[in-house]
Amino acid sequence: MRGLGKYLLWVYSGMALVFLLIPVVYTIVFSFNDARRTNIIWRGFTFDNWLNVCDAQDVCPSFMNSIVVAGVSTVLATAMGTAIAIALVRYRFKFRQATTLLLFLPMATPEVVLGAGLAAQFLQLGVNKGLGTIIIAHTMFCISFVVVTVRARVAVLDPALEEAGRDLYGSPNQVFWRVTFPLLVPGITAAALLSFALSFDDFIITNFNAGAAVTFPRFVYTAAARGIPAEANVIAAGVFFVAIALVLITQISGAIKRKRLAATS
Amino acid sequence: MAFGAFGGAAPAADQQQVAQRKSPIALWLLLPGLLYLILFFVTPLFSLVITSFQEPVPGGFLGEYQNAFNPSNYVEVVGTYLPHILRSFVYASMATVFALLLGYPVAYVIGVKLRPYPLVQALALVILIAPFFISFLLRTIAWKQIFADEGVVVGLLKSMQIIPADAYLTGTPFSVVFGLTYMFLPFMALPIYTTLEKLDLRYVEAGSDLYASPFTVFRTVTFPLSLPGVVSGTLLTFIPATGDYINASRDFLGSTDTAMMGNVIEANFLVLQNFPAAAALSLILMMSILVLVSAYVKRSGTDDLL
After folding, report:
1. B305/A contact by beta carbon, under 8 A
2. Are B67 and A115 in contact (CB under 8 A)?
3. Residues A5-25 pLDDT 10s
4. Is B29's CB within 8 Å of A91's CB?
5. B124 at the A interface (CB within 8 A)?
6. How does pLDDT run across A21-39, given as a tens digit for each residue?
7. Is A159 within 8 Å of B18 when comparing Cβ atoms?
8. Domain locations in chain A?
9. Cβ neighbours for A194, distance < 8 A, ≥ 6 positions apart
10. Class at the top of the CATH hierarchy for domain A57-228
11. What domains are there in chain B, each with its CATH number?
């Protein structure tokens, strides 16, 4: 009976992982479909969609828009979020409770509310919606996630390392840029990647604040009513392969670094 | 601390800090980000409040409203959209329960059972986060096509006579809850994994040394120790699921009969240009979630997390 239970747990979990992968595989496979007009039924294997991605109307411009939006929002959110994370761990200040609440609430608020709120504000101020307002919105919801990610890294930082820097007569500036910052780079990189992914894939907040600007998710959403071209699957699959490669590279380089550190110590 | 409920990984990080200094630098580090959040997160909430009380400009065009104090907007939206409000919370709760039932065992296997095999563990973890890297709209479309009337699943179920010949799956509450469960499963499993990964197995051993059955050990040792992860996971699933309008949209897995609050907020804001109704609904959604979440966090005994 106990053996059977153990076996069941493995099968059940394996099936859950397969369940997670089904739509991922489906999307990638259908990027190779010889779709012609609708990409619903499998009509045979082809590389055409991959070779002529930009042939489908609006796919490439919307993709470029998404890259620009995600790039700018990531830089802004990572800069502001990292600063907050350092302040939270390293300094004592008044209004700490209020600060953590202010950082927590955007994550606990459904995206529709964030999106509708900003849109209502832009409406009242008479701001024209476009790529700029999308960037404003994305930066806003990315900040909290950057803080959470970087803060975990600052918290495990050994203060003795910075002390050593100060003992060796490093100025506060030197200590920060030569010691603290390099140690934080992995955390900041992780936070930036997370921001980029969140921004790139965001639809709900974007839809409320986009005006006529079309990002890749917005393109997919509008196309869903009349049928999504296979070229959209190509873009999604391409992004997926790049992201997976990045994850593998960071994992492997991390492992190599750990090995080297172990060898020198 | 506020982040505990969401961070999972680093609760109480601040308290254990060695030397927290007081310095004017702190202000300069905090100021840009906090100012940004005040401008683009806090004041928009006030904009929502103002908008929710507005009334149409007499004789104005569609979408023209003026400031007023019109609380009847709230009565009106609750009257019109009560089914959508209830549906949102029912669907989101169901999806949260299903995601927990699926996600906990997966997190347990990866975080505890796979410890002796680091390579397999890393691979399983990559599978768990893989869905994040591919457009969630396209993944939802994938389910729509798999569940389509002429698709594999419906055909198979019909040939096995599990469902009648005229039955369909897309556009039903089933497909919407299914889609929500799928979409938020990684959000449920990951925080549970981070707590289970750090679980000290000596506690579990101590339990079985004291002749507790595996189930008792799980119920009294493993599960309580993983509770912070469970709370984070359920919040990360329930909150976005309640406001979601992709799965319930009729272009995806839903139909007009499955429309949730997100759908009516979107329709009122972007299509009907009934901004006050959209604002009132948004605030009702946010307030109900805050009330439910704080009650839940209190009850689960992880009070210090929020």
Report:
1. no
2. no
3. 678 999 999 999 999 999 999
4. yes
5. yes
6. 999 999 999 999 988 777 8
7. yes
8. 57-228
9. A142, A145, A146, A149
10. mainly alpha
11. 4-21+81-305 (1.10.3720.10)
